[in-house]
Design goal:
about 375 residues, alpha/beta, six-stranded mixed β-sheet, globular, pyridoxal phosphate, TrpB-like_PALP
Length: about 375
């Protein structure tokens, strides 16, 4: 959870302030001389980077008078994590919540939403974003039908990128600039590159502005977009596998959200990622670094490693002290029943140390016989 040395007033005070940690084992396996760093957003109180925008949107709407205590109903179309953040915020604030969410999103997300008091409406995965039956279309219809309903709209709400410009970005900068350079871990004392997978795009847009405006104008920002999505720029990057279904949740869209800046001044480079690459990277983060992350974190890491092998990224990879930050948006909590996770979690080999003794196998065999 977010760290604090004093008593917090409520759960919203535990949003953000997540750690930035070294991914040294993966860096060593890849032969990297730079510092590979992961921003662990699953350690926020609601379990994801979306806690930040949920808090910011609710507080801003209260200030503007759009949300009225005891009256307003919050409705939000979401892949799940923004919904969880909003349901958490509304539980604290006392608002009713309705979440519209595509069927492909995990049962764990729905369970958490319901546990927080939200009503969940599932929508077909195959509907385009502008269909009345998509999660956006259904949310809009509910808003028209329900008195005092408000859609905070993460796709257009300026408080989405602003939350990251004012909190996530400065936290990254503070962690890097507050950690002294040393013989063991040389540091340029600045963020030299930042890599993130994109969903609404508010995260990468806001953090980019925080890094480039006041910290390091030369920081390279790399966006990762799943094959089948159309967020990457230029558009030619999206032609292969366009509209192809993908399993990884929370990133990529079939439309361009208003909060995403595709201006090269904000996002220098885009790369595409596949489900296979994402899930293999998740396994590496778990087995090598002990980090229980979700699929979009795997997309970000796999994209970062691909970029570090590119012509642009190689000079960063080969330079001691360069700080490469990868955003890890959420944890595995929301995906424990997903086939991609169970495939390696329950079928993967144990650590090599266990293989040096047949004692475990003998014990397991005896337990199986006893159960018959």
């Amino acid at each position: 959870m977010a760290s604090s040395r004093h008593i917090l007033n409520n759960a919203l005070d535990a949003v953000g302030n997540t750690p930035l940690i070294r991914l040294d084992k993966i860096a060593a396996e890849e032969g990297l001389k730079c510092n590979l760093l992961g921003k662990l957003e699953f350690m926020s109180v609601g379990g994801s980077v979306k806690d930040r925008i949920a808090k910011a949107m609710v507080l801003a709407a209260e200030k503007d008078g759009r949300l009225v205590p005891g009256q307003s109903v919050v409705i939000e179309p979401t892949s799940g994590n923004t919904g969880i953040g909003l349901a958490l915020a509304c539980a604290v604030k006392g608002y009713s919540v309705i979440i519209t969410m595509p069927n492909k999103m995990s049962r764990e997300k729905e369970a958490l939403l319901r546990a927080l008091g939200a009503r969940v409406v599932r929508t077909p995965d195959t509907e385009p974003w502008d269909s009345p039956n998509s999660h956006l279309g259904v949310a809009q219809r509910l808003q028209r039908e329900i008195p005092h309903a408000v859609i905070l709209d993460q796709y257009r709400n300026p408080n989405n990128p602003l939350a990251h410009e004012y909190t996530t970005g400065p936290e990254i900068v503070d962690a890097v600039t507050s950690t002294p350079s040393s013989p063991l871990w040389p540091s340029s004392m600045k963020v030299d590159a930042f890599i993130a997978s994109a969903g609404t795009g508010g995260t990468i847009t806001g953090i980019s502005r925080a890094l480039k405006k006041t910290h390091n104008p030369d920081c390279i920002v790399v966006g990762i977009d799943p094959v089948g999505s159309i967020l990457a720029f230029p558009d030619s990057l999206n032609e292969h596998g366009i509209s192809k279904p993908y399993v990884v949740e929370g990133i990529g869209y079939d439309f361009i959200p208003e909060v995403l800046s595709r201006d090269p001044a904000d996002v220098d480079t885009w790369l595409k990622s596949t489900d296979e690459e994402a899930f293999k990277a998740v396994e590496r983060l778990m087995r090598k670094e002990g980090l229980l992350v979700g699929g979009s974190s795997g997309s970000a890491l796999s994209g970062a490693l691909t970029w570090l092998k590119s012509e642009q990224g190689r000079k960063f990879a080969k330079t001691e002290g360069m700080n490469i930050v990868v955003l890890l948006p959420d944890g595995i909590r929301n995906y424990m029943s997903k086939e991609w996770f169970l495939n390696f979690a329950l079928r993967s080999d144990p650590s090599p140390l266990v293989d040096q003794s047949d004692g475990v196998e003998v014990l397991e065999a005896s337990m199986r016989r006893a159960a018959l």
